[in-house]
Design goal:
Chain A has 111 residues and is mostly beta strands. Chain A contains no helices and 12 strands. Chains A and B meet through strand 6, strand 10 and strand 11 of A and strand 4 and strand 5 of B.
């Protein structure tokens, strides 16, 4: 069945560092791809999405590009802030709309 | 407007007891989803309602789990004879998805804050 694999955490970076969180997926169809974020004490929020190959999703300085040839959707940000500390989930959804999540990557940003 | 709300926020119960978890979706959202997030894991799909009916219950782990949405709005997830392995955060989400209408291929799911269930 469909699945998502993302890099394990925790990831610890200094403020203003460059961030990459790797994500690859397996799907039989042509899924939509997402990154969700869970800030401490808050609910799950959609960070960005891409619905077809070569689409780039972006929000709050984060970006991810839907790469069909490598089945990847890596999350990047050029300069992280302490407020970006959270758990990040890569996810996909096929035509049936159930979302399949990766295990999550905890990100710590040090001031 | 109001988001998805879930009650209670925390529930502690003894092994073998029955529990009910409630979800109030965003007003007007026809689709409702339940997910379960175990410690250190991503959320896992349990069941999807379109209106009053369960369109997909393939994620329910066994027959101790049951969910209803009798009026197409509020939903209740019911767990019988709870086990320690049921301890998790139960998340609800809703969306505007409606297969009966032509529209976008993708409808964002909005998540509630979750109910943390602890079975002792």
């Amino acid at each position: 069945g469909d699945s998502v694999t993302q890099m394990e955490g925790p990831v610890t970076l200094s403020e203003e560092a460059f961030l990459t969180i790797n994500c690859t997926y397996t799907a039989t169809g042509y899924p939509s791809l997402f990154w969700y974020v869970q800030y401490p004490g808050e609910g799950l929020q959609l960070l960005l999405k891409a619905t077809k190959a070569d689409d780039k999703g972006s929000n709050k300085g984060f970006e991810a590009t839907y790469r069909k040839e490598t089945t990847s959707f890596h999350l990047e940000k050029g300069s992280v802030q302490v407020s970006d500390s959270a758990v990040y989930f890569c996810a996909l959804s096929d035509r049936d709309d159930k979302i399949i999540f990766g295990k999550g990557t905890r990100l710590h940003i040090l001031p | 407007g109001a988001g998805v709300s879930q009650t209670p926020s925390n529930k502690v119960t003894e092994k073998g007891k029955y529990v009910e978890l409630r979800c109030d979706p965003i007003s007007g959202h026809t689709a409702l989803y339940w997910y379960r997030q175990s410690l250190g894991q991503g959320p896992e799909f349990l069941i999807y309602f379109q209106g009053t009916g369960a369109a997909d219950d393939s994620g329910l782990p066994n027959d101790r789990f049951f969910a209803v949405r009798p009026e197409g709005s509020v939903s209740t997830l019911k767990i019988q004879r709870t086990e320690r392995g049921d301890s998790a955060v139960y998340l609800c989400a809703s969306s505007l998805k409606n297969p009966g209408l032509a529209g976008a291929l993708y409808y964002e799911q909005y998540f509630g804050p979750g109910t943390r269930l602890t079975v002792t």
